[in-house]
Every structure is written in structure tokens, then in C-alpha cells.
Amino acid sequence: MVAQSSTDFFKILFERNLSGTQTSLSNEVADILNRTRKQCEAFAICFGDPRNLRERDFQDSMAHLFSLPKCDILASLSVGIDFFLSSKQSSVFLEFLYYCFSHHEVFLELVELSPNFLKFLWERVEPIGQDDEHVSLAILNLLVPVLLEQIPESQKKDILANFRQPGLPAGVENEGNTCFLGGCLQILSHVSEFSQNLIDISGTVGESIAQKNQFMHSLCDLLSMMKWSIRTSVSPKSFMNTLAGIEKSREFANFRQHDASEFLMHVLNVFDDSDEVLKNCVRDAFGGTMSCKVQCAACQSISSGADERFLDISLSFKETGNKNKRSLQNMVNQHLEPEILSENDGNAYYCEKCLQHTNAKVLRAITTPPKVLLLTLKRFFWNMELSKRLKICDPVVIEKTLNLPVLDAQNQTYHVNAFISHIGNSAQYGHYVAYSSYAADQWVKMNDREISKGLSWNDVISQINNGTNTGYVVVLRRSDTLKNYRNNVNKTPNSIPLKVLRDNLRYFLNYMQSHPSSNKFPSR
Length: 524
Hints:
Number of strands: 19
Distance between the termini: 33 Å
Helix content: 40-55%
Oligomer: single chain
Strand content: 15-25%
Mean pLDDT: 75
Largest sheet: 9 strands, mixed
């Protein structure tokens, strides 16, 4: 009686929704409600068109539904879900899933009420989830926590090892000499001002034959997977295939050794040379300006000119009294010291005021400090005598903070936030590893697919100043951006790209099917 009457009620409500009328209850509906008791009213309103419901109505109705006797709840759930699924109203079913997700204790109670409830959901959600982004997200968020709570403690550690740990990035598979790419991608993903803005932009720009859009969409797909995939590691193959199809980028897709800094700057320059939207995405995160003027030694005149934009600063290893005392702060200070141009060295300056070549000095000064400062230590150089590139393995003392002199303003304080290190004594080969900080003195090591957490600052410094394991790219964050960064570093966005959701769902379902002993879901 309950099932038949509930079905009649849902049909009437469904037909009225289709005709565009309000969901007010007619006498006919009221009669049915009287026959099927209060739980039908609550559940029917819950499963009405969500666009015609106020949030409070929905929550009040659900609260009433779950206050009823357990047998009545399950009876109404069974009839209501079956009816609307048969009517292909997945958005209605979604509304219920969202309620369960926001009231997780309700969902757990349902699981406890009926051992068949998980099986019931399992049999119904998979076909919907393949085509509906929001349902996919709801399914994933609902089923994964419930599943994990049912796993025996003795099995939990082994099973969790197959899923990315919350708060940590996914690793990047090494497809053969692609560690340079993986390290750079980890850095770009870590700088949320760039990666999240780029992902948001890609969602508003349609697919295009324009190469910059191909590059952007492919990179965003990979960054999105790194941020929100439940996999422990992701493959960069698709992105590399995109690089291979773009003339200016294909040299990085030949599965040979490449310089991590060169690739990092290639990616940033692709967008910096693009339209204003993409250009601003890069410059907002990494962009700074530097004044570079020349002062004539004869007449003391100073050349005029616009400030130069920069996305990174390359620091040379200049001679010091004790190479073991060389520090990152000193290397920055030396870079900004006046550079002498001398006739004796063959690089005299032509002064337009003196109308002759004279000695001079180049005056450099930061005029706009970037939010994120990229410093590349120029460890690789060309040896003319040997006709090959060599590596400088000298250690560099790196403190947690760095003071950046700014022209006509107070010095800016920067906090070291990430590294790319190079392992090996040769410039021709080696291995790149990335490190990043997700909280105060909490560091993560990203070595291809392997992600290691729990490192301290001292742990990281000891690793990147260890013989041929040397720091190469240093990422620093301006102090006034640090708080906002830490508040948002692990924040889930309002929407996750559909490709990631679908891959998450496939991965989760495949794992469940291949490990039937670790869950209560039936294998297909």
C-alpha cells in the first residue's frame, strides 16, 4: 500500500513539475498523503524539482523524513529513488546525495539501517555518474569515506596507499628522462596564484586550434589531475603529446635530458607572450620589474629607459674568498651590485652625451617586487677548453628568509617556499627532485611518483646541499602573501573539472571491483 501510493504521489508531482506549475499540494495529492502517512510528504518534497525548493524547505523535509521510524524511511527511500531514476531525473537523486554528503551522519545511519543500502546505491549511481559531473562528485564524496570507514584496521594502511593522501599533491610519473618536467609541474601546481587562475581561465576559453589554447588546456588538465585526482600519481603523457605537436615546444617532448629551469621559463613565456588574460595570469604571480640603467664614468650621465619586466632572476657563482660561505642572500646582493663596463675588457659603453666609448657601470634595482620570486642558481656553464657544459657543485647557504632590496622603498622580505634540486655531478645527465612547504616547517619531497611528507626545513637543506645533490631553482614567497597562501593551499575549489571527476570515479570503481575483499560492494 505504501509503495503504490508513494508512486502515485511522485507521478503527480513529477507531471506537475514538467508542466511548469508550482508544486503546491492539491486535494488529490493531499488524499494520497493521508493514505501514505507523513513520510511520503517529506520525501516527496525532497524529491521535487530542486529549482522550486527553498533550501530550508528541503532541509526541514529531510529532517522530518529521518525522524520517522526506520522502516518507513527505508520504504520511502526505496520507492522515491526508484521512481525518479526510472524517470531519468538524476538531478533529483543528486539533491538527496548532496543532503547525505552535507549530513554525513545521516548517510552512515542509512548504511547501518540496511546492509543493502550501499548495494542499492552502487547499482544505481554508476550509469548516472558517467554523464553527470555533479552526480560524479556526490558519488565520490559519499562512497569513498563510507567505504574507508568499513575497512578493517588491519587492511586500512595497505588500501589507503592506493589513494592520494589528503593535503598532498599527486606524484608525476617519469615517462623516461622526464624528471625535469615533473619537478617544474610540481612547482607550478604549488604556486596557486598561477595554477588555480590558469585552470579557472581554461574553463572559460573554449577548445581552439590555436596552439596557445592547446598548450593551456593540456597543461590545465594535468595540473587539475595533480591537485584533485585521488590517484597517488598521474601521467604527463598527454601533455607531452601536446608539446610534441607545437613547434616551439616539441624539443621538450623527445624523452631526453633537459634543463628544468629552461623548461619552467618556457612554460611561463608561452603565456607571457600570449593575450592579456594569460599574460596577466603569469605576471600576477611571478612578474616583477627592474630598473637597468648605465652611468657614464666620464660625464656621470645616466641613461633613461623604461623598467624591464622579469619572471625570474638568474644568479651567477662569482668568486668568493670561501666558496663554502657563499649564501643565497649574498648572490642576490651581488646580482644587484653595479656591473663595470670597461674598455680594457672590450665591453666599453658608448655614451650619447660624450659621443664616444667610455668606461661605465650598469645600475640594477628592483622597482616592483613579485609575489613569487623565482631564483635560478646558474650551476651549469660552457667550458671552452673542454667544449662541453660543466656543473658547479658548490654549496649555497640558504636561510628561511631573504631580503630583497627595492628602489625607493623598504626592502621586501621573502620566505623560501619550494625548491628544485639537481642530483648528479654532470650537466649532461642527472635527476631533478622538487620540494615544497605546505605549512610552517612542514615540507614535502616530490620525487617523480613518490611523495614523501614530514620533512623539516633542516631535512630539506641537508638534502639539497649534499655533495652533488644541489639546490637549483629556489621559489620564494613575499611575506605579505604568505598567510593567504597557507589558508588556501589545500582548499577545495567550488568546482572540480569534469575530466578529473570522471577519472576519479573510474579509478575508484575499478579499484573496488578489483579488490572485492576490501569492501562490501558487489563485483560486476
